[in-house]
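Dear support,

I submitted the protein below through the web form. The confirmation email said the job was done, but the results page showed an empty box. After a refresh the structure appeared. I'm attaching both so you can tell me whether what I see now is the final result or a partial one.
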Amino acid sequence: MEPADHDMYRAAIHGDLEAFELVIRNMSRPLFAIAFGALQNREEAEDVVQDAFVKAWKTRWQVRNPEKFPAWIATIVRNRAHDILMRRRTIPMEEQRECSQEAKTERDKVQLNITVWQDDQEAARQQTSLRIRASDVTEQSRLLREVAEKQGGRVRSSSFPRDPNGREYANVALRVPMQNYAALTQSLSALAKLENLSVRRDDRPNLQIDGKNAPADISIQVYSQGNLVAEGSGLPATLRRTIEQGASALMWSVRMIGVALAFLAPWIIALAAAIGIVRGIRRSRRHREN
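What the results page shows now:
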């Protein structure tokens, strides 16, 4: 799986609507092919795919490994198509149409909720930012989302960067009604120690605002203290660097010896020739004297 796809599925699992929309666009055709192959009915296959995406959005927390997310949705489609096939054999056609209409109405409600969440641009009355340190960023992010949903909060955006030193982050933006803000912050405090807490409130005396239902935004950064071993650190990396440096030094020495030999070779040959000539002259003299 490509890293970009892995990040997309991971963000979708953690409630990022834009990422989930990308999943819908990327998987609609293959999922429709699965449903149509089983049902041989275009309208029913389209309903199955839409129902599967709705169920996937509602129960996305069941998937821990992002790489298994596509296969998990495909399994939902197959199971839903199988249910329809079994219902064809046991339920009269008129009742089937009624059940299909009820399911479609429920799906439309969920899709409407998703659209409203995404398009909600009302200015927040209160803005809070904080940080949470965790050994497992992914698990901690999942827990804080569960806490937020219990208090009526929703995820507006999320990202999962990682720096070169191996520190992993999760940046999560939540929106919650003001009436649930205090309960949510207490739940977050019980979940982990809150760091760098900052609160900014926008009070407008001349503007009539429903104080209980006015939105409050909470920006949370979950970070690790270098829980991942950075590349180039640790005993294996140190040994590798030592061996590489030793091999590099040896190769440099060999190259230098080669350069020296290439430079001295003519002189050595000339010296050897001169010595040979001198020895030849001496041998000739001795031969004459004898």
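Response: this is the final, complete result; the empty box was a page-load delay. The chain has eight helices and five strands.
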